[in-house]
Amino acid sequence: MNGDTINIALVGCGTVGGGVAHVLLAHADRVARRAGRPLALRRVVVNDPAKPRDPLIPREIISTDIEAAIRDPNVHIVVELVGGLGVAKKVVLDSLAAGKHVVTANKALLADAGAEVFEAARKAERTVCFEAAVAGGVPVIRALGESLAANQVTAIQAILNGTSNFILTAMAEHGMSYSRALAEAQRLGYAEADPTLDVDGSDAAHKLAILAQISFGVAAKPHEIARQGIDTIDAMDIRFANELGYTIKLLAEAWTGGHTHSTNGAKLSRGGAASAAHANGGPPTVALHVAPVLLRHTDLLAQVRGAYNAVLVYGDIVGETLYQGPGAGQMPTASSVVADLIDLGVGRAQRTFAAAKLWSREGRGFTVEPPERVRSRFYLRLQVVDKPGVLADITRILADEEISISSLVQHEAEEDGAGGPVPLVIVTHYAATGKFRKALERINALSTTAAPAVFFSMGD
Ligand code: HSE
Q: Which numbered atom of ligand 1 lies nearest the CA of 195?
């Protein structure tokens, strides 16, 4: 340990902030050895100073004064753990303007205002670190930005929301109800302050936008990432998927044109429409979406359980690599925040940040593929009246849109001749999302369709 002490202000001391404070105070010697200098927690800014805190935090460093923390000339790094877009954005921009480096776990802020935040950092010649913003304790930002730097990533398939994965695992393995599983995820500190962001796919979309910026240089706006949450999944879908040999996972996926990969021995090409545009001399494109996807039970991502996250990255040089670990929760996220602080202490982060030019105009030429052009197989569950001609009407509509059926499941109704409605599950061959949606509209309009169709992509 040879450098000067680096002083830290922590703004926000909830679940993650409490973990960061604890690691800095309980493991000060280890952190100092790794950083080559002491990292001292000098200020902790909170909303409610009366709330009980980790006993290691000295009372006198706790205050409610954000401005004083940001303006303190002795503070070198501000850690923003407020979350959201309002106060958090101001804390980050004001800290940079005041000459502080910033460490943040705020995926919503980077997805929404990455260009503005990074421009401000470059202007102030300061660094923004955000390992904790994606996949909690899994070091995927470093993997993509540093360890895989020799590659062009061609696709990413990831479980990026611990809460959703926790809920799906609890429903599939323990038959737990959706609402009980969500309450449990909240109790364990995995969920966002507003858990709607977890279950409707928004949180995973924010994280995917960050990974897409690092991997493809695209600054995807929220509306460019097609998004479907787990709130549309019924226990019945989990059972049908299981019967067909599949597990349902909420996946965040990015596919460049022409990407192919091999799963279970089969060569696959999802997102394939993009390859044609690129082959014709157009710019390379990347399709981005967050959606429940049916994965074969044997797929690596199908086996990721509980609040764990996993990121499968396909690189043109390395091939396929997988990063897995706790994606939510106090200590896993604190582990990534403190790693960023250590990197700033060493001086590595400043150099990497300057070289990466993230959210700058020097993109890598990728544009976002319109969601309707993405090709996939689909799982489709209908509630239909059980009478002659119903299936014929549905298969005619699918045929009109050039969609071929791969398999079909209808269980016998308990009382023969009762007329339904009964669930009918269809798995299709590859189809363009746009055509599939057109077919859905027509199927939903049939008088024999008793409830809006439920559909998910297939992972193979
Ligand atoms: N709510 C998030 C999750 C926490 O469940 O994954 C980490 O961003």
A: 1
Cα distances (angstroms) measured from residue 356 to each of 119, 129, 346, 359, 363:
13, 12, 18, 9, 10
Total domain count for the chain? 3
Residue 345 near residue 6 (C-beta atoms within 8 A): yes
Q: Whose CA is nearest to atom 4 of ligand 1?
A: 328
User: Are both 400 and 443 inside the same structural domain?
Assistant: yes
Mutate which of 131, 161, 331 for ligand 1? The one with the most ligand atoms within 8 Å of its CB, which is 161
If we measure between CA atoms, which residue out of 206, 84, 208, 207 comes closest to residue 155? 208
Q: Which residues are catalytic?
A: 207
pLDDT digits (tens, 9 = 90+) for 361-384: 766 678 888 878 888 999 999 999
CA of residue 189 to ligand 1 center, whole Å: 9
Q: Residue 130 phi/psi, 5° resolution?
A: -150, 35
Give the range of the structural domain holding residue 385, as residue numbers without chain letter: 374-458
In this predicted structure, the answer to whether residue 184 has a pLDDT above a threshold of 80 is: yes
Same domain, 386 and 303: no
